[in-house]
Amino acid sequence: ATQLLPSMSMLSVSLVALSLAPAAALLASDVASLKASLRQRSTDVERGFSADRAAKQALAANVEALEALNEDEAPTKSGKLLGDWALDYTDAADVLSLKLVLAELGAIRQDVKAGATPDSFAATNAVELRPLLSSSVLSPLFGLKPPPVTYAVEADCRVLDDTKLSLVFVGGALRPPVLPPLALALPSRAVDALHGLFQGRVYLRTTFLDDDLRVARGPGREIYVLSRVTENDF
């Protein structure tokens, strides 16, 4: 009987593994379906810039369903957070106000790098701007787009907990296509002082993270959906 115990134990483990396999496959299928739906809806509303109330509600429901399936419980400790990300969708007023700029909006990206300390990150938020009608008129007529001007804002991010990063904007740059960039950055003492002043009231909470998609929320529950940028996307 004692000789049967290891075999019975192995059989139990195998049965548990077999029972979990369909559930894992179903979860992966649900996540893939929700991600595809979210990306398509985001494209339909031009990253949120043309979203009406009904579209925003549908996208919010899509995001909440995806958040419920998040498996990364500590994204601020995950290497997946690092890298170059492109904005798919947002309902945040500060980003959507970019539509008031008299220019054609190109890529809106966030590059996340490890910071100077283990509990910090450096994020660069950048938007590409081209002359109006670059895509609809200039490109069809002349077969090319004018090179973009890139406006970038630098943020110092510090870990508040497993999901939340504080944000302090510490500099910016304007990068014309030909001329040298114009940049400005705060000294480190000023950055530390700002973190102390805001005390984490300005933050981003990562609510979903996998290999190629990230969802984050701000203090007002505003939504940011971003897809990882690969070399093929450049």
Automatic annotation (TrEMBL):
<keyword id="KW-0732">Signal</keyword>
<dbReference type="Pfam" id="PF04755">
    <property type="entry name" value="PAP_fibrillin"/>
</dbReference>
<dbReference type="GO" id="GO:0009536">
    <property type="term" value="C:plastid"/>
</dbReference>
<keyword id="KW-0934">Plastid</keyword>
<dbReference type="InterPro" id="IPR006843">
    <property type="entry name" value="PAP/fibrillin_dom"/>
</dbReference>
<feature type="domain" description="Plastid lipid-associated protein/fibrillin conserved">
    <location>
        <begin position="33"/>
        <end position="227"/>
    </location>
</feature>
<protein>
    <recommendedName>
        <fullName>Plastid lipid-associated protein/fibrillin conserved domain-containing protein</fullName>
    </recommendedName>
</protein>
<feature type="signal peptide">
    <location>
        <begin position="1"/>
        <end position="25"/>
    </location>
</feature>
<dbReference type="InterPro" id="IPR039633">
    <property type="entry name" value="PAP"/>
</dbReference>
